[in-house]
């Protein structure tokens, strides 16, 4: 059974991208979503992306006695797709980098090496482990993916100064965009350029009054003092480069989005915040597909076209008229896969 909608048949799908993020924990819903995503596969037209945090809690194990467990977490994500002939690309997230710990570089290389052991050209880790990128992937004649390792930019334990690498990356990104100026560009990274999830450090009244609902949704125990303390401490005393307001994260956002600003047909695709979001501003179109195995709160915004705080994934169809159809899939109350949202992103003519 193929679940893509009948009305799409009016436009031929040239390429389908199935996008999971933060799927690196085996649980019932993670398994169900990946299994049911196989029903969306269009033969010879589908590619799967896992946009980081592929192994919780802290990436590929380096000790022999722990390796099998982490290897199985990774296999749980790609096995079904490869059995149906779907190419699979993995990007690194902060948890893959040893949860931004000192063994981060060694662990992302170990994850990439494990995938390489399968000697499967349709199973890849992008960009090359332990590099910033960018790396391009030709998805179809007129659509290109550009991948980069955003955690490499944010990682706090580099043994060398990476400022020159950042500058080289921005220059290479600019050159790639110029080379493909007439094409649609999907920029894949783990960290989003825009988000209203937990890493945005935005909080509402419920977070202040019922802070334990962040751990478990039904836990409505009023703790107003504790609830107000958490946002303050998170935003000041324990600043993390994993949060969008951090200066290093802001630097990455500013430099990447400024470089991309002149290219009208660009879509950012990421995970990191544990939910589903589609965000449109005057300058950015951002997909967040970060709930393959996790969930968390999302704050309202006028720029938030769609949001969902529980587990799910995203599908992007590139159509033969150069438009894109964006869809989000979740599990409904009857425990079936359900298309909760779809939107056509119109292609803009380039002068």
Structural summary, described in words:
The chain has 351 residues and is α/β, with parallel strands linked by helices. Helices cover 27% and strands 23% of the residues. It is built from eight helices and 14 strands. The strands form two sheets. A seven-stranded mixed beta sheet has the order 4-3-2-1-12-13-14, with helices on one face. Strands 5-6-7-8-10-9-11 form a seven-stranded mixed beta sheet, with helices on one face. A hairpin with a 2-residue loop joins strand 5 and strand 6. Mean pLDDT is 90; it is low at 1-8.
In short:
With 351 residues, the protein is an alpha/beta fold. It has helices spanning 28-37, 64-83, 104-116, 150-154, 163-179, 205-209, 224-235, 247-260, and strands at 13-20, 46-50, 88-90, 123-125, 135-140, 143-147, 184-188, 266-270, 276-280, 285-289, 304-308, 312-319, 324-331, 337-345. The protein has a seven-stranded mixed β-sheet, covered by helices on one side.
Which keywords apply here?
8 helices; single chain; 351 residues; alpha/beta; disordered N terminus; globular; seven-stranded mixed beta sheet
Count of beta strands: 14
**Low-pLDDT segments:** 1-8
Shape label: globular
Structural class: alpha/beta
Radius of gyration: 19 Å
Sketch the major β-sheet.
Answer: 7 strands, mixed
Q: How many helix segments?
A: 8
Helix content: 25-40%
Which band does the percent of strand residues land in?
A: 15-25%
Distance between the termini: 42 Å
Average predicted local confidence, pLDDT: 90
Write the H/E string, N to C.
EHEHEHEEEHHEHHHEEEEEEE
Q: How are the strands ordered across the major sheet?
A: 4-3-2-1-12-13-14
